[in-house]
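Re-run with default settings, no changes from the original entry. Doing this only to confirm the output is reproducible before filing.
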Amino acid sequence: MVSGLGRRKFLLYSSAALGTSLLLKACADGETSATSGASGGEDTIKVGILHSLTGTMAISETTVVEAEKLAIKEINEAGGVLGKKIEPIVEDGASDWPTFAEKAAKLIDKDQVATIFGCWTSASRKAVLPVFESKDHMLWYPVQYEGQECSKNIFYTGAAPNQQIEPAVEWLLKNKGKKFFLVGSDYVFPRTANTIIKEQLKALGGETVGEDYLPLGNTEVTPIISKIKAALPDGGVIFNSLNGDSNVAFFKQLKGAGLTPDKYPTMSVSIAEEEVRQIGPEFLIGQYAAWNYFQSVDSLDNKQFVEAFKAEYGEDRVTNDPMEAAYIMVYLWKQAVEQAGTTDLEPVRKAAIGQKFGAPEGPVEMYPNHHISKTVRIGEIQADGQFKIVSSTPKPVAPIPWNQYVAETKGYGCDWSDPNKGGKYKKEKA
């Protein structure tokens, strides 16, 4: 799909997200089947939506649900999928990882959904992964993450580290300084991301002067700010991978302590337009974020997306990267299902590889490693809560799930189109 389509064509021909799955269409005994699909005599195709609508992650995940619902509404208004309407079944993971696993199993076994769109944190994704693998079902995951994973049962439409974290570090080294303090929430994504960053800094001549973590949802940020001031008395880079409402306290106290962007530029990888809106732009002006999409992207496809979202949810609302990745994955799934001619897992999985879409962020393509190509952008937060794009790659960057800075995964790749390679294989040296 190419950018610049009119709204009508955008709705009729765009598609995509979340293919895969056994719409475990009720066997007589109520059990699920790994090959049955949604192609029976019913008028709808059930899909699951699984995100945190309550708890510390609700600040971010509620808007992702809205974006997925918008895509489903547009697809249904344009005729649905295989002549059937999509019926979303929404479950609340409640910012609790065992709850995510429980709800995933419920959606698959009881609701017999064709696929599930869900999760934000890597902790929630890791919690549900055994469920999807044991049941051979399918998750579409819309958020940037730490990589070091390549599952047959997941399609990832957020950034791999080489499409967000690594370019952000390179940009900071070139433009802002070589001394880094790393701060994050205490779970798998920030810790793994910081492992990558530390190895990257070693390789590129930077220095990690400090590293600290907060339990997810914790707002006691004063000790971390004190450590930053002690480690960087003359200023330096703060790389922030806090998630959820910990960011509210962090940025308010950061400004209150006088750690302003001119001396302490902060690069965030989980702060986007919605978080800026809720924290307050006045606490964030001049700080940075690395994403693949910003609401300020100047393209016809993005203008259509922003207009559609505001029309649905209010003119005061904003769009952001995870929302956009969630929106486009529903269309990618639709395209894969229609190419396969069924919602059955294996045909959809195969059809999903190679799907292209003219996304609001720019053109994307699903690679054999179940990740998509993405344009990398660095944005500076403005007074109106929007991002001024200060850096952008000239074309989409191919995804690399297994990190090439970390010794344990250097030289490894993932290719689900080749059964001899699969989720992790040693690449031949060029």
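The first strand starts at residue 44 and ends at 51. The first helix runs from residue 7 to 13.
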